[in-house]
Amino acid sequence: MDRTEQIRQFVEDRFLVDFDEDGLTADTDLFKAGVIDSFGYIQLMKFLEQEFSLRITHDDILVNVFVSLSAIDAFVAQKSAELQAEGQGAACAG
Amino acid sequence: MCGIAGFVAPALDAGAVPGVVSSMLSLIRHRGPDEAGYYLDDGLAMGTVRLAVVDLATGAQPMADPAERYWICFNGELYNHVELREELRLLGRPFRTHSDTEVVLQAWIQWGAGCLTRFNGAFAFAIRDALSGELFLARDRYGKRPLYYTQGDGAFLFASEMKAFRGFPGFRFELDPRELASIFAVWTPLPDRTPFRGIRQLPMGSVMTVRAGRCTLRSYEELELEAPPFTGSEADAAAFVREALRAAVEVRLRSDVEVGVYLSGGLDSSIVTKLVTDLSPHQVRTFSVEFEDRTFDESSSQRVVAEHLGTRHSSIAVSGADIAEHFPAAVHHAEVPSFRTAFVPMYLLSRHVREAGIKVVLSGEGADEAFLGYSLFRETLLRSSWHELSEEQRSARIGSLYPELDHFGPSHRAHLAGLLGQFSTENEQLPGLFSHELRYQNGKFAARLLKDRSDPFADTIALVRDTPGYAGLGPTQKAQWLEYKTLLAGYLLSTQGERMSLAHGVENRCPFLDPAVVRAAASVNLRFDDGFAEKAILKKAFRGELPQSSLTRPKQPYRAPGSAVFTEHRPDYLELVLSEAELQKIDGVDPVFARKLVGRIMSAPAAEISTKEDQAFIYLLSTAVLNQQFVMNRESYMGAPSQATLKLRTVVGRRQVGAGAVR
User: Fold this and answer.
1) CATH dotted code for B2-221+641-653
2) C-alpha triplet B315, B77, B494: angle, nearest 5°
3) Cα nearest neighbour of B447 on chain A
4) How many C-beta neighbours within 10 Å does residue B117 have?
């Protein structure tokens, strides 16, 4: 399962939605659609941090809007790339 | 306290009328077990089941003026009846009893509907003008007492509880999916709505005239949340608030029977207990609910307050099994779907109070709305000033919200900042409902239980749009307005309040809903503090008079165990939501989503079930139970019938057509 599919699966399982059947797209605002609430939001953040081994910082939250599947996916992609680059940088330095 | 019911039905066979009105009254006899009476006129009948509290001997109803032109069926209490009686006597109005009912009637004769703004009370009544042939219905300003009506087939029916309509020939209940969606979305019916097709409520603060089969409804008093700012010192303000409350409690102790207090252990009911203790010549009795589950239990706070104030305290312990067992009976009394189970313990508490020989209690309802006690108000203050605050200020204020919710705890501050930032002022999505948008996320989820996915907030948005003066209120006042009109009237005072207490013939009175207290609160709120110290002025007003713990502990919202009680105890009626065939029987419910939700609730560990899932499940279960009780008429789901009997004492007939005058 690729990253996008993994996030989508989590959202579907956790929030009892089906993107296809419920007419949601990757760009649907999941707050406006009534899919995510405050409890779910915190769970989603925890899931992203654990599943993709990343840390969502205060600055990340200020500049990113976690409202749609595509926005969440893009954030995780960017964050993972940064982590990888840092990892490589560290390896080179070593 | 009482219940009223009646109808205007010219086509109904005259011989059947006494039986029909008796049957309607019998269905709400739990509200007034002491005596009953009805009045018959051409094409009209109305009656009262009475809980005798004031003027036990001569306060029987229906009651007329000496000329027998005006007839009244009255439910509730008029707290300022002593003062109004004196004023009316000076104006030459005659009195034959000491009851507040007669004061209402004479005030109506003297001032017409203009009397309503003079009333300080909790009431709903019907007045018949036998000369003009008009029928008037009115309800108190905060919606303390209920009044429902419905029209069809040439008949107009009204009653304190909808279940009375079952007594009228040919009447059938149907769920209204549009109203269910709105209830699921905003937690309660809107002020004039019900979950049933064609049944409406008289909104709080309104009066209706029924004349020649036509109804005219108008508001006699709008909710007033603005008051001239208090100009004295903070100490003066605290004294001013204390005196308003003392006076409010004093008039609510007017009763010919003993008055007790519901003591939750929190600040508000402790204040009420303190004032009742001061004003009573005898030891005061207090009553509480204790929970087996420590997460919800407040018994230690209750005992501290009771000991400090020297009350004769008693409590009942409520378990998850008790909630599961009594849920259907409590739903039958509530008559609307509920998002919580917390009303069930109140049903059991009122039974205990009644068994203890008490039929009037005072409680702390209305304090959080008036004095900005809810976290919702702090959340509104925070989100509406989001861009003016530093990160540190935001984080500190997030810390003061919802201490009872783990996910608002310290480890999630950064995440929550991201969430709340999306709900700041410029992002308002539901016009006029800014304060409640985050809460309404839960409602959006629950509304998915309905097949029809049209906007469940449309009627609420229309309500605030069409309310004069609403647009000019500040964010916190709008939040207050919504709380008064929805959660307070539509759940706390009704489902969790008077419907549960009246199930066992207990009347509740709320000093914090005295108009003078509401005005006092409006004049001092946010004048001496920023709103983030919970009910600061109220605490100052009673400093030194209550145990320190009552003044310092953070608010603990009254809650009860949720969906876990049903999954753990598996009552028979759970089948109503476990079975696909049963789900199909509920008009408008989407069985696909309902099945997903039920599957999750039944299989996930309790800690992983979110508030919105829990609420949606209880909505679904309570709707399924209501469907059995009201739509399908299954008596086996209605709980044990009231042991009260209909004690018919007064029958007045003025009919000229079809039946002789029986008086």
Assistant:
1) 3.60.20.10
2) 55
3) A34
4) 12
Count of A-B CB contacts under 8 Å: 69
Three-class DSSP category at B563: coil
pLDDT above 50: residue A94: no
Q: A6: distance to nearest CA of chain B, Å?
A: 19
User: Which residues does B529 contact at the CB level (< 8 Å), separation at least 6?
Assistant: B536, B537
Domains B2-221+641-653 and B234-365+493-552 share a fold: no
**How far does B431 lie from chain A, in Å, by closest CA?**
13
Query: Could you give the angle at the alpha carbon of B232 between the alpha carbons of B230 and B235, nearest 5°?
Result: 105
Rounded to whole angstroms, what are the CA distances from A6 to A47, A48, B370?
10, 10, 47
The counts of H helices and E strands in chain A are 4, 0
Which residues on chain B are in Cβ contact (under 8 Å) with A39?
A: 405, 407, 610-612
- Looking at residue B1, its pLDDT comes to 60
Q: What are the start-end ranges of the E strands in B94-246?
A: 121-129, 134-139, 148-152, 155-159, 199-201, 206-211, 214-219
Global pTM?
0.94
pLDDT tens for residues B120-178? 999 999 999 999 999 999 999 999 999 999 999 899 999 999 999 999 999 999 999 99
Q: What does residue B186 show for φ and ψ, rounded to 5 degrees?
A: -110, 5
Phi, psi of B299, rounded to the nearest 5 degrees? -65, -30
- A38 and B418 within 8 Å at the Cβ level: the answer is no
Which residues of chain B have a CB within 8 Å of the CB of A16? 593, 596-597, 600, 613
Domains of chain B by residue range: 2-221+641-653, 234-365+493-552, 375-484, 564-632
Give the 3-state secondary structure of residue B261: strand
Closest CA in chain A for residue B601: A16
SS3 content of chain B, % helix, strand, coil (to 5): 45, 15, 35
Mutate which of A14, A16, A38, A66 to test chain B, going by most B C-beta atoms within 10 A?
Answer: A38
Separation between Cα atoms, residue B295 and residue B286, nearest integer Å: 22
Contacts of B137 (CB under 8 A, 6+ apart): B124, B125, B126, B147, B149, B158, B202, B207, B208, B210
The pLDDT assigned to B64 comes to 95
Contacts of B612 in chain A (CB under 8 A): 37, 39-40
- Per-residue confidence (pLDDT) for residue B476, from 0 to 100: 96
Q: Over the Cα atoms of chain B, what is R_g? A: 24
Please judge whether A61 and B421 are an interchain contact, meaning their C-beta atoms are less than 8 angstroms apart.
yes
pLDDT tens for each residue of A54-93: 888 877 876 666 789 999 999 999 888 888 887 765 554 4
Q: Name the closest residue on chain A to residue B412, using Cα atoms.
A: A42
**What domains are there in chain A, each with its CATH number?**
3-93 (1.10.1200.10)
Q: Which of the four CATH numbers 3.40.630.30, 3.40.710.10, 3.90.800.10, 3.40.50.620 does domain B234-365+493-552 have?
A: 3.40.50.620
pLDDT by residue (tens digit) across A19-56?
988 889 999 988 777 788 778 888 888 899 999 998 88
Low-confidence ranges of chain B (pLDDT < 50): 658-663
User: Cα B203–B207–B213 angle (5° rounding)?
Assistant: 105
Residue pair B142/B484 in contact (Cβ under 8 Å)? The answer is: yes
The rounded radius of gyration (Å) of the Cα atoms in chain A is: 14
